[in-house]
Amino acid sequence: MTPRIKICGLRDVASAKATAVLGADAIGLVFYEPSPRHVSINVAHEIVAALPPLVSTVGLFVDADPALVEGVLRTLPLDLLQFHGDEPPEYCRAFGRPYIKAVRVKPGLDLLELADRYADARGLLCDAYSSAAPGGTGERFDWQLLPDNLPMPLILSGGLRPENVGEACRTVRPWAVDVSSGVESSRGVKDLALVGRFIAAVRQAG
Ligand SMILES: O=C(O)c1ccccc1NCC(=O)[C@H](O)[C@H](O)COP(=O)(O)O
After folding, report:
1. Any idea where the N-(5'phosphoribosyl) anthranilate isomerase (PRAI) domain is (predicted)?
2. What local confidence, expressed as pLDDT, does residue 53 receive?
C-alpha cells in the first residue's frame, strides 16, 4: 500500500493549498515558538479554511502548556494532534482528541515499550534524535533500529528527501512518511518543486 504523506511546517495559505493540490494527505502546523516553522493561530486558521476537503490537518506541539493546546483546539478544527516532546501518555490523552506521539529514535530506545505506553495513540511518528532541536532538523536515523512488529501505524520521519524517500518506503514499509526540511529551499520555506518530487517518489515506490 502506498504510504500516506504528511508535509510538516506549512506557514502560508498559498503553499499549503499548493501542497494539498500536489497530493499531500496531511499538513502539519507547528505551534512551537522556537521553530522557524512556527505558525500563529490566525494564519493557521486561514490555512485550515483554505484547504480542499479530505486533507488532514495536524497540530504540532512540544511540551506545551495545556492552555495553549486547548486554546488552539477551541478555535481550530484540527484532525489530529502531534506531540513532539516528552509528553507522558496521560497528557496526550487529556485533550480527548486523536493524537500521534513523536519519538526521537536513537540506539537503545525501546520502541515496542513506547508503543505499549502510548497504546491509545493513532500512530508512532519515528523521528531522528538530535541534540540540536526536538524536530525538523533534517537528520536521519538508522532505520534498522525500527522493529518490524510495531503494533500501531508507523509514521517514518527524519531526514527524508525526494532522493531517499523511495528507498525508505521500500525498506521500512511505513504507514506514512513525514517531511519538513527535505522539501525546503531554506529553513522554514517550502519549495513546491521539492514537495512535488517528494510526493512523486513516494507514489512511485508504491
Ligand atoms: O519542524 C520543526 O521545526 C519542528 C520543531 C520542533 C519539533 C518538531 C518539529 N517538526 C516536526 C515534524 O513533524 C518534522 O516533519 C519532523 O521532525 C522531520 O523533520 P525533517 O527531518 O526536517 O524532515
Report:
1. 5-199
2. 96
Best of 25, 58, 84 for a ligand 1 pocket test (most atoms within 8 Å of beta carbon): 84
Return the CATH number of 4-205, one of 3.30.360.10, 3.40.1650.10, 3.40.140.10, 3.20.20.70.
3.20.20.70
Query: Which residues surround ligand 1 with Cβ inside 6 Å?
Result: 8-9, 28, 30, 32, 35, 37, 60, 62, 84, 127, 133-138, 157-160, 178-182
Domain boundaries, the chain: 4-205
Mean pLDDT along residues 118-133? 96
Sign of CA dihedral 44, 36, 141, 103: negative
Whether the CB-CB separation of 154 and 126 falls below 8 Å is answered with yes
Cα dihedral 48, 49, 53, 59, rounded to 10, equals 10
Residue 1 has pLDDT above 90, yes or no: no
